[in-house]
């Protein structure tokens, strides 16, 4: 078993499951929390994430298969997607894939799911298909405000990490997103994104 990522909430290990390459996600004990409460929270989040992974696949979202859930160890063994994170792709490819990513996010939102951590590291290109990973912060939500938070985060990531291609990538993302959710909902969400941004600027000025 090989550690591939240490996170604030969980660690990821490369492992095997019945002769298939797999990822083992183990939620960390939080020592600052009451032990009983901590155990309950980790179990609930483990259940929710495994259910969410199955749910999004039912909507046609490419995501890892869940192989096994161990509530005692608050871990999920899931399919390893052996592709390349969008974060590590050439800029021209990121621009091209932004439309596909917009469609995926639109499909999530249209079905009442907020991802909660929309970064380019959580999209993986494998065999010409973009997969969505890490639903640890996701939640069922039909609130436009929650969906706007998702869009605001990915826009911020594009702006900070890919300044040169931000405009092209964001335009393609918006095009893909709008093609799924429709013009009226798209207009509503982008207005909310602008509201969030203006509140942020105002807070900085104050």
Structural summary, described in words:
The strands form 3 sheets. Strands 1-2-3-5-4 form a 5-stranded antiparallel beta sheet, covered by helices on one side. A 3-stranded antiparallel beta sheet has the order 6-8-9, with helices on one face. With 206 residues, the chain is of the alpha+beta class. Helix 3 packs antiparallel against helix 4. The N and C termini lie far apart (50 Å). The protein is globular. The chain contains 5 helices and 10 strands; from the N terminus they run βββαβββαββββααα.
Q: How do you describe this structure in short?
A:
The chain is of the alpha+beta class.
Features:
206 residues, Phosphorylase Kinase, domain 1, Transferase(Phosphotransferase), domain 1, five-stranded antiparallel β-sheet, three-stranded antiparallel β-sheet
């Amino acid at each position: 078993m090989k550690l591939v990522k240490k996170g604030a909430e969980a660690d990821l290990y490369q492992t095997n499951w019945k002769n298939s390459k797999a990822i083992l996600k183990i939620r960390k004990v939080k020592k600052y929390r009451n032990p009983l409460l901590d155990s309950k929270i980790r179990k609930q989040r483990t259940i929710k994430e495994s259910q969410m992974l199955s749910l999004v696949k039912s909507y046609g979202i490419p995501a890892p298969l869940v192989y096994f859930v161990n509530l005692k160890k608050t871990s999920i063994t899931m399919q390893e997607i052996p592709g390349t994170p969008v974060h590590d792709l050439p800029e021209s490819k990121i621009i091209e894939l932004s439309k596909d990513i917009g469609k995926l996010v639109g499909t999530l939102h249209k079905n009442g799911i907020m991802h909660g951590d929309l970064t380019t590291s959580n999209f993986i290109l494998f065999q010409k298909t973009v997969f969505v990973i890490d639903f640890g912060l996701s939640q069922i939500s039909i609130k436009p405000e929650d969906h706007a938070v998702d869009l605001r985060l990915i826009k911020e990531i594009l702006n900070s990490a890919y300044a040169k291609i931000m405009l092209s990538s964001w335009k393609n993302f918006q095009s893909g997103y709008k093609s799924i959710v429709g013009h009226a909902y798209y207009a509503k969400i982008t207005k909310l994104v602008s509201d969030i941004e203006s509140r942020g600027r105002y807070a900085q000025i104050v």
